[in-house]
């Protein structure tokens, strides 16, 4: 597949990934290479990567604990200290081998260590392949608040090798699929129609589906790299989705939600709001709800949790001058950003989701 070129990075696919990586490593002359993994990618993915690297390099592996709960400044501090102890300098390279937590956190660590070292993302989850590793957003959570500390700075390259998906459990695959559905809803009705019925999809075509999803995101990011306008479209489902995810992260008595699972809920709720405020038809709302609920199991959100989740909306990164802004849908494939929604309508969106 043809590489996808962004402003400052290139996304490679399939076997071309490693020829591009080896060419880069040979020319770059980095002093040291650090590969950041979590315990899962250390076990299931590292050996493949190491087997594909040609040449003799000074390589160190740094392992962190898996999961969103560890995507914080404390983990960053640990990695920064290890880099310092192992003699990392400004000519060092960080390769982030993992899902969204590893690529988000590893990118942030690289961008801030000695005011910035080069990094490469090798996403190993579907979510990271279509979303977290593309577009240069790096960062970590602040307590239960998602991605509150970070920078936008693109990697040297992104390598999308779907071989790594073989070790993923079904819920992790579904989590990534939520972002692919989102890309169709905000920008490309044909893509939404193509992927919305999983029963008709041949997973041998998964790489092409990922490729098309990355193209959609890259086209948006290329036009608006710092999220001043249309890059906000990518936040559809995330205003409420992130609040739900954050709330559940700090309430262990509630069901644990993966990022995509929370975003799936957010997309249904924000589609409902779209049908009330904008021109999204009832048929469009029903289509979105049916597709998402066919793929993602219904989650019970007790009524006593509605207001505490809404209270978290004030921390959303899209907010400006005290206003809580949503991304909503005019129709399938067409979004609108900077939409203000009143609390009563947000509460009704909880009731809509709970009605299924």
TrEMBL record:
It is an enzyme of class 4 (lyase). Keywords: Cobalt, Lyase, Metal-binding, NAD, Nucleotide-binding, Zinc. GO terms for cellular component: cytoplasm. NCBIfam families: aroB. This is 3-dehydroquinate synthase. GO terms for molecular function: 3-dehydroquinate synthase activity; metal ion binding; nucleotide binding. Catalyzes the conversion of 3-deoxy-D-arabino-heptulosonate 7-phosphate (DAHP) to dehydroquinate (DHQ). GO terms for biological process: aromatic amino acid family biosynthetic process; chorismate biosynthetic process. The keyword Manganese does not apply. It comes from Aquimarina spongiae.
């Amino acid at each position: 597949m043809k590489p996808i070129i962004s402003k400052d990075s290139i996304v490679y696919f399939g076997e071309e990934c490693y020829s591009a990586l080896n060419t880069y490593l040979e020319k770059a002359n980095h002093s040291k290479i650090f590969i950041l993994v979590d315990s899962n990618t250390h076990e299931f993915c590292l050996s493949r990567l190491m087997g594909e690297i040609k040449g003799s390099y000074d390589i160190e592996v740094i392992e962190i604990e898996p999961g969103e709960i560890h995507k914080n400044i404390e983990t960053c501090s640990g990695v920064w200290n290890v880099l310092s102890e192992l003699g990392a300098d400004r000519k060092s390279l960080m390769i982030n081998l993992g899902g969204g937590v590893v690529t988000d956190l590893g990118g942030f660590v690289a961008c801030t260590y000695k005011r910035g070292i080069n990094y490469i993302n090798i996403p190993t989850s579907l979510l990271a392949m279509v979303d977290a590793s593309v577009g240069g957003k790096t960062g970590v959570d602040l307590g239960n608040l998602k991605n509150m500390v970070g920078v936008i700075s693109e990697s040297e390259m992104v390598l999308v090798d779907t071989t790594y998906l073989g070790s993923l459990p079904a819920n992790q695959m579904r989590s990534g699929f939520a972002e692919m559905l989102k890309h169709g809803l905000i920008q490309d009705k044909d893509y939404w129609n193509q992927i919305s019925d999983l029963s008709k999809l041949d997973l041998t075509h998964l790489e092409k589906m990922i490729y098309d999803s990355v193209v959609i995101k890259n086209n948006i990011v290329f036009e608006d790299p710092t999220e001043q306008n249309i890059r906000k479209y990518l936040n559809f489902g995330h205003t409420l989705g992130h609040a739900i995810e954050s709330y559940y992260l700090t309430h262990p008595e509630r069901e644990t939600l993966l990022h995509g699972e929370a975003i799936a809920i957010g997309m249904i709720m924000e589609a409902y709001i779209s049908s009330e405020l904008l021109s999204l038809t009832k048929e469009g709302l029903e289509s979105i709800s049916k597709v998402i609920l066919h793929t993602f199991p219904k989650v019970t959100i007790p009524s006593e949790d509605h207001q505490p989740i809404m209270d978290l909306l004030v921390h959303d990164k899209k907010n400006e001058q005290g206003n809580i802004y949503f991304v909503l849908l005019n129709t399938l494939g067409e979004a609108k950003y900077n939409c203000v929604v009143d609390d009563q309508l947000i509460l009704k969106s909880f009731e809509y989701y709970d009605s299924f």
